[in-house]
Amino acid sequence: MIDPLVNDALLDGRSVIIVGAAPLADKVTTFQSLVDAVADMRKLAIIDEKHVLPTVPPSANVIDVEFKGVDTIHREIREHDDTAVAVPNMRRGDIVRLLMDFAGQENGQVLLINDARSDAEDTLRNDLPMILLKSSPSGHTEFSDAAIKAMNPVVVSLDENGNVDSLKVVDLHKEGLHTVTFH
Questions:
Q1: 11, 15, 18: which is closest to 163 by C-alpha?
Q2: Residues 64-93: tens digit of each pLDDT
Q3: 88 touches 96 (CB < 8 A)
């Protein structure tokens, strides 16, 4: 079952990031329920390089990203008129950066798993800015707070047992990157 706040976020087209101390299998189970829900609401693309999703909705556009740059990937998303993209890992920084732009600038919906054991704060304040830094041609992160705020994600933190530990959103009204916890 999807938490009501996460369900509302999905209905509003907001991005969702699954994080926390849960084993990857539990994160994938939660992620699969999000993917299934979004596939019923929007045109969904899936980028699953490691093939960790147990099932892919038949309506989804599966994008093979092997040997492809972000321009080609972005073109495939646009050509298929996808409005949501699900990626069950954050390993490839150039894709994450593309998805942050897709969410923030093109009003796209992004579903991600941080397969590291990072919590919501670490994901938002360390992992995403580091991905932006590493994938930035100039090596600057001065826009990372703005990019994360533009993405406006709901961050679902799962505990060691795979249960929802907390839900956090970015406080869009405060200077810098601050979060609000819902439970």
A1: 18
A2: 998 999 999 999 999 999 999 999 998 888
A3: no
pLDDT digits 0-9 by tens, 18-42: 999 999 999 999 999 999 999 999 9
Q: How far apart are CA 80 and CA 55, in angstroms?
A: 20
Instruction: Count the neighbouring beta carbons within 10 Å of the beta carbon of residue 101.
Output: 17
Nearest-angstrom CA–CA distance, 143 and 166: 26
The CA distance from 49 to 63, in Å, is 9
Q: How far apart are CA 167 and CA 9, in angstroms?
A: 11
Distance between CA atoms of 34 and 95, rounded to whole angstroms?
Answer: 20
Nearest to 107 by CA among 118, 116, 99: 99
The Cα–Cα gap between 118 and 124 comes to 9
25 to each of 18, 47, 50, 111, 162, how far by Cα in Å? 12, 17, 13, 16, 9
Taken as a whole, the chain contains a residue count of 183
Cβ contacts of 45 within 8 Å, gap of 6 or more: 60, 61, 62, 63, 76, 77, 80, 82, 84, 85, 86
Compute the chain's Rg from CA coordinates.
15
